[in-house]
Amino acid sequence: MARKYFGTDGIRGQANGSITPDLVLRVGQAAGLMFRRGDHRHRVVIGKDTRLSGYMIETALVAGFTSVGMDVLQLGPVPTPAVSMLVKSMRADLGVMISASHNPYGDNGIKLFGPDGYKLSDALELEIESLIDSDLSRRLAKSPDLGRAKRIDGVQDRYIEFAKRTLPRPLDLSGMRIVLDCANGAAYKVAPEALWELGADVIAIGVEPDGFNINKEVGSTAPEALSRKVRELRADIGIALDGDADRVAITDETGHVIDGDQLLAVIAESWQQDGRLAKPGVVATVMSNLGLERHLAEKGIALIRTPVGDRHVVERMRQDGFNVGGEQSGHIVLSDYATTGDGFVSALQVLSVVRQSGEPVSKVCHRFEPLPQIMKNVRYANGKPLENAKVVTAIEMAEKRLNGQGRLLIRPSGTEPVIRVMAEGDDQMMVEEVVDGIVEVLRQAAA
């Protein structure tokens, strides 16, 4: 069934565009009604990032939840993984994060977490959608049963202690110079404080949010500022989070940005050596480099692939009992500690390996040579170009050519009318020829 409001990661859109106070109010009412189960006093925790529109959305959500009899605990600016952690530790019925992650400030969104700390299933989101568009007037709470709302102090300290406890051993970062970019987002207070408490010399950028500058030329999706600062100050490492701190980018001491696949390898091997890897496998998406798969195989660790999206990674981890997974983008999930991606906790795991090894980041975080990987996009106006007979034939021929020497992935984008063509292999020239051949046929079919 087609979804009207929910996308691949909650509800997201332009503030006062598709995300209006009226819609947000109804989302609060619908989600609140879905999670009013039992006779106890129900409550929801709400966190947010630093976007200007967060005030508007938070207020509308509070009105929606309290109108159906749920108490609201307002957390203020905290990372997304802090919400998923606090919904469990505070025994709430529901958790909400107001954020559009790495998008610019004009966008915003709503991520929902169940009482177990996990993002809601597709089925639950569809039920909430049906309630949003229904007449809820008869299901509102009676006057004596309305919910209450209050702001909670100390949640940032709780997250800092939680993050530090994920370290396998006491970690002393004394003498280590770290440039930390918080994207002017949700982690602008907690991440610098945690690293300072661990003894590091912290140079923080992206820690002056004004409601408009979240992710603006800073953060994990714009690591150039981090790289420049690392080189300028001759720092040991650079760490960049995104707007809601559920993903991370890391640079070595030269300012070189380290691929998320390399970070997955670092963490997986470290956990394997410490006996912390629940199963000899790591869950990643179809976008992870074949070089990672081959490298892990040499270590006796399988790479299990899923469709793109952290939700698919988490689902496979839960289904089969894996405790390390992630995406090439730096969205890493360590399920021993979190039910969603946690950029800061992932960075701490890497710091632990660097500190223990005594080697520079450039050596610690270069585990394998990635295979040449090329991706191109083909935009189309209408129709289904992937069903075109010439396209089908071109794809079949390309797969035969790459057989045993590489990988081909062709998929439609989930957010725009674009076909993504990706290939990788040992021979870069052959990979380029394969991609260019399919792109040319696709463009003819889409014309």
Provide a descriptive summary of the structure in words:
The chain is α/β, with parallel strands linked by helices. It has 4 domains: 6-153, 3-Layer(aba) Sandwich (Alpha-D-Glucose-1,6-Bisphosphate, Chain A, domain 3), CATH 3.40.120.10; 158-257, Alpha-D-Glucose-1,6-Bisphosphate, Chain A, domain 3 (3-Layer(aba) Sandwich), CATH 3.40.120.10; 259-364, Alpha-D-Glucose-1,6-Bisphosphate, Chain A, domain 3, CATH 3.40.120; 373-446, Alpha-D-phosphohexomutase, C-terminal domain (TATA-Binding Protein, 2-Layer Sandwich), CATH 3.30.310.50. The protein has 14 helices and 19 strands. The protein has helices spanning 21-34, 53-67, 80-89, 122-132, 155-165, 190-197, 224-233, 260-273, 290-298, 310-320, 343-357, 361-364, 389-402, 428-446, and strands at 6-7, 10-14, 43-48, 71-77, 94-98, 107-113, 149-151, 177-181, 201-205, 237-241, 248-251, 257-258, 281-285, 302-306, 324-326, 332-334, 373-379, 406-412, 418-425. The strands form 4 sheets. The chain has a 7-stranded mixed sheet with strand order 1-2-6-5-3-4-7, sandwiched between helices. A 5-stranded mixed sheet has the order 9-8-10-11-12, sandwiched between helices. A hairpin with a 5-residue loop joins strand 18 (406-412) and strand 19. Helix 1 packs across helix 2 and helix 13 (389-402) packs antiparallel against helix 14 (428-446). The radius of gyration is 23 Å and the shape is globular. The two termini are 29 Å apart. The mean pLDDT is 94.
